[in-house]
Amino acid sequence: MINKDKGDHKYLLISGNIEQQIMSRVLKIGDKLPSVRMLSDQHEISVSTALQAYYHLEGKGLIESRPQSGYYVRFDPSRSPRKVEKSMPHQEIKTKEVETIIGEVYDDFVSPDVVRFSLSVPAPEILPLARLNKAMMQALRDLPANGTQYEQVQGNGLLRRQVARWSLEWGGHLQPDDIVTTAGCMNAIAYCLMAITKPGDTIAVESPVYFGTLRFARSIGLNVLELPTDPDTGVDPDDVKRALRNHNIKACFFVTNFSNPLGYCMPDEQKEAMVRLLSQHGVPLIEDDLYGDVYFGRSRPRSCKSFDEEGNVLWCSSISKTLAPGYRVGWVAPGKYLKQVKHLKLYHSITSPTAQQEAIASFLATGRYEHHLRKLRQTLHANSLRFIQAIGEYFPPGIKMSDPKGGFILWVELDKHIDTYQLYREAMQHKISIAPGAMFSLHDRYQNCLRLSYGMQWTPQVDRALRKLGELIRNYE
Amino acid sequence: MINKDKGDHKYLLISGNIEQQIMSRVLKIGDKLPSVRMLSDQHEISVSTALQAYYHLEGKGLIESRPQSGYYVRFDPSRSPRKVEKSMPHQEIKTKEVETIIGEVYDDFVSPDVVRFSLSVPAPEILPLARLNKAMMQALRDLPANGTQYEQVQGNGLLRRQVARWSLEWGGHLQPDDIVTTAGCMNAIAYCLMAITKPGDTIAVESPVYFGTLRFARSIGLNVLELPTDPDTGVDPDDVKRALRNHNIKACFFVTNFSNPLGYCMPDEQKEAMVRLLSQHGVPLIEDDLYGDVYFGRSRPRSCKSFDEEGNVLWCSSISKTLAPGYRVGWVAPGKYLKQVKHLKLYHSITSPTAQQEAIASFLATGRYEHHLRKLRQTLHANSLRFIQAIGEYFPPGIKMSDPKGGFILWVELDKHIDTYQLYREAMQHKISIAPGAMFSLHDRYQNCLRLSYGMQWTPQVDRALRKLGELIRNYE
Questions:
Q1: Which GO terms describe its molecular function (chains A, B) (predicted)?
Q2: Any idea what the CATH number is for the domain that residue A412 is in?
Q3: How close, in Å, is residue A387 to chain B by CA atoms?
Q4: Which of A212, B3, B211, B358 is least buried, going by the fewest C-beta atoms within 10 A?
Q5: In this complex, do A349 and B215 lie within 8 Å of one another by their Cβ atoms?
Q6: Contact A148 B349 (CB under 8 A)
Q7: Residue B311 and residue B186 share a domain
């Protein structure tokens, strides 16, 4: 393992235990926690480690210190909304074109002054801009001819080496030659779909599903079968088996870790079963694993690719969710479809800009990535809890919500009669952008749902925006 | 006009006249030219302007100075090989798959130590690397969040403004909102073809034709009709008219200025007639104009787009042939297909990396591009003449060759029984790479042709490589 997360630090162990007690309501809101000295005695740790554990919990918004008094629980999981249930998509015809909605919400994502809960990329204030910039300048100096010449079609060699090395983290064993770099993860998914399908084919996806995949699939004439999806564990192999019996499915697409938008993380056994099943049927799996590095637990979840022995999994990822969406650096390990994917890249754009890839490679190589991830995970975990509490407080009591263990996306289900596309338009009047649920299906579903990103710095402005959103939703009642 | 080429400088006028006399053999090899003083008297110019005219011609390899004696003609156009004739492609089946050949020649273009006559991009030694690097660093500093965030789908605003401004040079009148930036010109062509065709459609192209377009067209299931093409003027509207009568053509693709590989430049009247004809038939024209800035004459040729009043021309270009192929910066003005092209870009890769676009925009804005182009044109013009002379000297007498007035590509036709794919393999033994003619058609044609790029610094090594290539060709006789 490289740059292994220092998850075995004592303070993390102890704060993890306390967090669990808060979440299971053993410790309730308002409860006083042991004094720092007491904690240090109980666990045979130094006072400073005990303090560190409390600071960590405070940073996440789970506890608070009161002057002259000590630490108190401030988080109440019962105030979190109920969890969403397993989706059961029907295949009815959609009344409003999904592309129209996506177009309106997404085609311009650079207008200023909008609180952008709609965009599933990290805001600049939580990114290591100065270090990235330094890495870019170094890359420009280091590259042959300063990056002005074509690089290999397969992509920057340093980056492919680092991605291969890093694959150990999720149980992979990739070689640099297994990997093709792409212009971000969407570009990787696009090449994979083009490599393994032809117009008129059917693919099976989770539901709700990342709209980028939906609209790309439509643009190349694919039919899309949306599968029932559990908000904790994702798609059940039994449901896939049924679908394979009834439909001529040419490929599956799943975001296996902290999926967009449901936030589920498929358990290891389920991943393994899924890989085995699809392999038996000769149906390739496009695995979108671009949130996998942003876990809130103790270690990175595995990927389906790590169980793939036959090259049947096309594993896609990028640094768009962790470092720099604008760099457009992604990659794919396409298994036995390597040649086709490489050719598609060559046909569509010859090569990729090399400087950004070189800069990211050096980030991965030197430990700067792991260093940044540790901080990012903590920020996002804390954000997720703050968002959940705020939504519990500001939104109407009847709503349901996802409970992601990583990533930075929440899925919220409102009362059935509320149309979140309408809500989106109202919210935009107040410079608040949300992603309406209808974007995440080709069928008439999720009109009462919305996706919220918490990939930003928590500020009073964000708090106010959530409160305003709650107000707008309550107006429907 | 911006940064207008100082083509009205007196020394250029005079050297241009002398060049014409050499080319028309009024002045023959070995002829003594007037002394500098005499030239200055004849034309009522200063001695230094007269000297400048001779330096200019010397730089091009057309004349030479002999110590204590003066200037002499050293170029003989009669030693240039005969010109290739108009292509008459038949539509017979090809025996060897074009993709196999392309794959072998092109899939790896980074092996070191090869004299790369095969690659139609400028070598780093004739590019302004230091200035580009500086522009990149500045761009990273100037961009919001240092270029880490998504930019507008349509592309960097500064770059689109500069491309629009620059369009005046070729008779265009584009607005920034008419333009979508892309990952190089091939990427622009790819989006255009996807926007206006569907699998099974037929497109008409010049012949021989840029292989990138051929293989992309095949990859999306298009049929390709190859049209007769004149090496000086390109495709004749009458031939297009005939093709439109006999085939259901959905789009045309032409490289109108200094085409790749024939090198023709379509005359203005022909461009205008072509645009009118295709507009009447409602058949869109994809115009690839990426060599247009590298003209050897007095001004930039116009584009078909400049005659387009109905948005029927999708004009594609890039800086890959003039500044930095590795930056992957290109663009397209897709006329009435703007929305479709923009959506395709969004679907395939969301946005482009922004730093390279910003750097190129500043190059265009500040006159550094025009400054570089002046030098580049002179280098390439001189190279073209040196290559033509060397080929005339080293290659067998029977060969034919193109006579480009811009760009950096020569098309050479050898004796009918010579297979240039075989020649390619032999040349590679000597670390010389050429592009075999068979790559430029889907049919059994051009097996005895090859494409040579002269986009590099002329060196003894280049001279030796051409001599060796000549030897290998003579071995076939």
A1: transaminase activity
A2: 3.90.1150.10
A3: 23
A4: B3
A5: no
A6: no
A7: yes
User: By CB neighbour count within 10 A (0-12 exposed, 13-18 middle, 19+ buried), where does A281 fall?
Assistant: middle
Q: Helix, strand, or coil here: A417? A: coil
Per DSSP, the three-state class of A285 is strand
Q: Confirm if B266 and B257 have CB atoms less than 8 A apart.
A: yes
What is the Cα–Cα distance from A247 to A252, expressed in whole angstroms? 12
Rounded Cα distance, A364 and A165, in Å: 9
Query: How far apart are the C-alpha atoms of B54 and B64, rounded to whole Å?
Result: 9
- Taking an 8 Å cut-off on Cβ atoms, the answer to whether A353 and B328 are in contact is yes
Interface test with B, best of A108, A143, A150, A290 (most B CBs within 10 A): A150
State which residue of chain B sits closest to A350, comparing Cα positions. Answer: B186
- Contact criterion met (CB < 8 Å) for A348 and B184: no
Token reading at B33: 């030219």
A35 in a domain, yes or no?
yes
The domain boundary residue, chosen from A366, A389, A414: A366
For residue B2, tell me if it sits in a domain. Answer: no
Do residue A118 and residue A183 come from a single domain?
A: no
Alpha carbon of A188: minimum distance to chain B alpha carbons (Å): 9
Do the Cβ atoms of B122 and B408 come closer than 8 Å? Answer: yes
In this structure, the answer to whether residues A188 and A319 fall within a common structural domain is yes
Q: How far is the C-alpha of A475 from the C-alpha of A419, rounded, in Å?
A: 12
Last residue of a domain, one of B367, B387, B405: B367
The minimum CA-CA distance between B353 and chain A, rounded to whole Å, is 5
Specify whether A198 is located in the same domain as A236: yes
Digitized pLDDT (tens) for each residue of chain B, 477 residues in all: 333 344 457 888 888 888 888 888 888 888 889 999 989 888 888 998 999 899 889 888 889 888 888 999 988 887 777 878 888 776 555 656 777 888 788 766 667 789 999 988 899 999 999 999 999 999 999 999 999 999 999 999 999 999 999 999 899 999 999 999 999 999 999 999 999 999 999 999 999 999 999 999 999 999 999 999 999 999 999 999 999 999 999 999 999 999 999 999 999 999 999 999 999 999 999 999 999 999 998 899 999 999 999 999 999 999 999 999 999 999 999 999 999 999 999 999 999 999 999 999 999 999 999 999 999 999 999 999 999 999 999 999 989 999 999 999 999 999 999 999 999 999 999 999 999 999 999 988 999 999 999 999 999 999 999 999 999 999 998
Same domain, A311 and A387: no
Q: Tell me which residue of A285, A324, A289, A316 sits closest to A303, measured CA to CA.
A: A289
One domain for residues B345 and B428: no
Which among A148, A190, A356 has the least Cβ separation from residue B127? A148
Domain CATH code at residue B39 = 1.10.10.10
Look up the domain containing B111 and give its range.
80-126+371-474
Residue B154 C-alpha, separation from nearest chain A C-alpha, in angstroms: 9
